[in-house]
Write a structure and sequence with these properties.
A hairpin with a 2-residue loop joins β34 and β35. With about 850 residues, this protein is α/β, with parallel strands linked by helices. The structure holds zinc ion. The site of zinc ion has 3 residues, from loops.
């Protein structure tokens, strides 16, 4: 009976073609499974979660039973899971997927089309709506909601829903981080019914990067980011991206567009107009359904390009974020009215405002509420892209055309392949631009890459290749400026240490260049296989991967002084069966030499310990990612092991990733107020015994390396080093809390730093770099006692106006002449302290070598 009614409904409403009807009838062999029947519990019930395997099995069953649903695998995850998305539309649209992808591609790059042709494409096309869920694994509501919404779309006979499906194709990604979804559901189930129910995990919810998986969307370092990026900018070209998140428990119930200030200059305003159209519909549908606590113009700015949908703004894609208030995973929370608070951009006090017309009064808040809000916004998103289908499609072409027409066709970013310190990284920059869907040319002798600014993604190119100047937006006269949402700089050439410039190119050079599909990496291998030794200068990141790989393979590696004064030291490799193949894979060309240069010393692989606290620190994950990528061998080092002492028995080098002193000492995160309680086996830090053990480790000849805030641990009496943090107030000898953003504020910017290239840690580096700085640490040393040798490895310029390279720096004069990286030697022991983020989020390829050098120095 149900099926017959369903069948008639479709006929009456849509008068689909007989082909599509036949298909719908044919595929509906079994009943379309309901999430609750399939899972054995009601999705969204208190204390119940579907894990990723269940979600993915459900979607497979849905796709098998419904002609409106298909599954596409996007690739593997970091831990080897299949990452999938559901494609949902009418059977007829699904049968013509490639036609609609083709229209989307043409609208995204309408060069050569007349306005009549564009209008025709807008009439013929379907809006492609990408909805991504659960990139942050504890923000789990959307992954559960996705099953319900997909079921509704697969089974509804409501004429309005059928009309929307006929107008649009939905790409629904139930989780952007499947590994994390698995971790969070396992952790939640394990502690269900205990006092830790719904609490945080003591490890990152992505194998490497945790919450920073949503900071990776311009650098594309993680496999999950790459998978989705490929689908978006090379296959489907969705016009609209909705990314569903959750936020804190005690503020508004949901954030919808418009975004908050500031606004990025290079984003076409039509992007925001499209986003606001969707936001208006979301707000309407939420209020109509009696949902209170809806806010816009709050917290989330229109300036930063690092997250999912934001990166697409510069590529003429509409992109919207929603954030729903959280419960404790699947456990309800009870929020009293006095606990409700504002305190963030757009809602300073929790009161009725025009961007928050109907405050939520407090009460019980549960997973079911989160999913109900998310069902409404998902449905409003589909309604918007359906109602404004032609306008939105034409809008994409309009933005692309404007990007081309407002740029000078002769102005390009030039990336020369010659004269690069690290040609492999230069080629990687080209490869990254291609991954982003950017058009790249190469000149006739293949030695110069040209990236035209007059192309549909031209504004993205300018944003990523140029420097940033963070706008000083003041909400009121005389007030402080609006803080950036995340960081303030993302200048790829500066971060990667690649020479690139924006220049006017002669037409003959431009005309003789050709478009490339792939970046050409330098030819690697041995320039001549007949040699006892093979040499390469140490000024490329991959050289360190080669040195590690060869030692891992049992080869001998030597380090020799630079053959010319001021040059880079040389790595010398003894002949080895795998040397040519590995050098080839790493795009490194080695030159044979008959003997070892005088004074060459054989490298010993240092035994590396990477400190890992129970308060998950993303920088620990990023450091691990980098060490894995460059084939360092290391062990994670936990509190217990540090406290136990005798560290020299197991390690030569200990790395403390960026972390606050409280986290390292006490296992407590003070930055976000009271921190959460972990089960007893995950509590505490290294404590006083740990500090003593680290000092002993150095006294007995170990090397201790501290990254950014972790350096605070060594400032003070315990280590007896003649150093203080120049940015701490005079009364406090340590810590960052004393400096307020009113007299010093560097929110993730690139600053100019000079290097002492005669020091082993800066050897092979240029004498001037852009360093990524996001914490108020600058070193002030004093003349040391006779048993300590101190070296200033890196320092800021004398003149404050020379300090900022890209981003924002307020109070830069406080950095003048201060040290940015220092080293101490006492006996055989070494300490290297970096005040900046030397490998920030695997984006600072231009400064990786400082970290690699420091580790290798520890092995000598
Ligand atoms: Zn989030």
């Amino acid at each position: 009976m149900f099926k017959l009614r369903a069948f008639l409904g479709v006929v009456l409403v849509l008068s689909l073609s007989s082909f599509a009807l036949a298909q719908e009838k044919q595929k509906t062999a079994g009943p379309v499974p309901k999430p609750s029947d399939f899972l054995g519990f009601e999705a969204g019930a208190d204390r119940k979660l579907a894990d990723y395997k269940q979600i993915s099995s459900y979607f497979k069953a849905l796709a098998a039973a419904s002609p409106r649903v298909q599954i596409e695998v996007l690739g593997k995850t970091t831990l080897g899971e299949d990452m999938f998305m559901a494609v949902i539309s009418t059977p007829e649209n699904l049968a013509n997927k490639s036609k609609y992808k083709d229209i989307a591609r043409k609208l995204a790059d309408p060069r050569g089309l007349t306005s009549q042709q564009i209008d025709q494409l807008a009439r013929d096309g379907k809006t492609i709506l990408l909805i991504t869920c659960n990139i942050h694994s504890t923000e789990i509501g959307s992954s559960q909601m996705s099953m319900e919404w997909a079921y509704n779309l697969a089974t509804s006979q409501d004429p309005e829903i059928l009309r929307r499906l006929n107008d649009s194709i939905v790409l629904l990604v139930p989780s952007l981080n499947p590994d994390g979804e698995t971790m969070v559901t396992e952790w939640y189930r394990k502690y269900l019914g205990t006092k830790y129910e719904g609490g945080s995990m003591p490890y990152l919810y992505h194998h490497y990067v945790g919450h920073d998986d949503n900071r990776d969307w311009f650098m594309l370092t993680q496999i999950e980011t790459k998978n989705v990026n490929r689908m978006v900018y090379h296959d489907w070209f969705p016009q609209f991206w909705l990314d569903e998140h959750q936020m804190g428990e005690t503020g508004p119930r949901i954030y919808i567009p418009p975004n908050a200030d500031p606004v990025a200059k290079l984003v076409n305003p039509l992007v925001h107009r499209g986003n606001n159209l969707m936001g208006a519909d979301m707000g309407w549908r939420l209020e109509e359904a009696g949902k209170s606590g809806v806010i816009f113009g709050y917290s989330f700015d229109a300036y930063w390009p690092g997250g999912t949908r934001n990166t697409g703004w510069w590529k003429n894609m509409y992109g919207v974020l929603t954030e729903v208030a959280s419960a404790r995973i699947a456990t309800p929370v009870d929020i009293t009215p006095d606990e409700l608070q504002g305190g963030t951009k757009g809602l300073i006090t929790y009161e009725q405002q025009i961007n928050f017309p109907n405050p939520w009064p407090g009460g019980i808040w549960r997973l079911r509420d989160i999913m109900d809000y998310e069902l409404l916004v998902s449905s409003a998103a589909l309604e918007t892209v359906s109602k404004f289908r032609q306008e939105l499609l034409r809008g994409v072409a309009t933005m692309a055309t404007q990007a081309v027409q407002t740029a000078d066709p002769q102005v390009c970013w030039r990336i020369p392949m010659e004269d690069q310190r690290d040609p492999v990284t230069a080629a990687r920059l080209v490869a990254l631009l291609l991954e982003h869907g950017v058009e790249v040319h190469v000149n006739s002798d293949a030695k110069l890459y040209l990236v035209p600014t007059a192309q549909p993604y031209g504004r993205f190119v300018d944003e990523m290749m140029g420097v940033q100047r963070y706008p000083e937006v003041r909400p009121a006269a005389g007030s402080g400026i609006l803080e950036p949402y995340d960081v303030a700089a993302w200048s790829l050439p500066l971060m990667m240490g690649v020479k690139a410039e924006r220049a006017t190119i002669r037409p003959d050079i431009l005309n003789s260049s050709r478009i490339i599909k792939e970046a050409q990496f330098p030819q690697g291998g041995l320039s001549n296989a007949n040699g006892k030794y093979f040499a390469i200068p140490a000024h490329e990141n991959n050289v360190f991967a080669l040195a590690n790989a060869m030692q891992n393979a049992g080869g001998q590696v030597f380090l020799a002084q630079a053959p010319t004064p001021g040059g880079a030291p040389q790595f010398i490799f003894a002949a080895h069966a795998q040397l040519a193949a590995i050098a080839d894979k790493l795009h490194l060309q080695l030159v044979p030499r008959p003997n070892l240069p005088q004074g060459a010393s054989q490298l010993k692989q240092p035994r590396i310990g990477l400190y890992k606290s129970y308060v998950p620190e993303m920088d620990e994950g990023w450091t691990r990612f980098l060490l894995d990528k460059y084939e360092f061998r290391y062990k994670s080092l936990e509190n217990k092991e540090v406290r136990a002492g005798n560290l020299n028995n197991s390690f030569d080098v200990i790395l403390l990733p960026d972390s606050s002193k409280e986290v390292i000492l006490e296992g407590r995160e003070s930055r976000f107020g009271s921190s959460e309680e972990f089960p007893p086996e995950y509590t505490g830090g290294i404590g006083k015994e740990g500090v003593k053990a680290l000092r002993e480790f150095v006294d007995k000849g170990g090397t201790l390396i501290t990254l950014a805030n972790a350096s605070d641990l060594l400032i003070g009496e315990d280590f007896g080093l003649p150093i203080r943090n120049a940015l701490a107030s005079p009364s406090a000898t340590q810590g960052r809390a004393a400096v307020t953003s009113s007299d010093f504020n560097v929110p993730g910017s690139l600053l100019r730093v000079y290097l002492d290239t005669a020091h082993p840690v800066a050897a092979g580096m240029p004498s001037e770099i852009a360093a990524f700085v996001d914490s108020p640490i600058a070193f002030q040393t004093s003349p040391p006692p006779p048993d300590i040798k101190r070296s200033i490895i890196a320092w800021y310029p004398d003149d404050a106006k020379d300090i900022l390279v890209s981003g924002y720096a307020h109070g830069a004069e406080r950095l003048q002449r201060k040290a940015a990286a220092v080293a101490f030697q006492r006996g055989k022991g070494k300490i290297v302290m970096f005040g900046f983020r030397v490998q920030h989020r695997a984006q600072m390829e231009g400064t990786y070598q400082l970290l690699f050098n420091a580790i290798f120095w520890g092995g000598m």
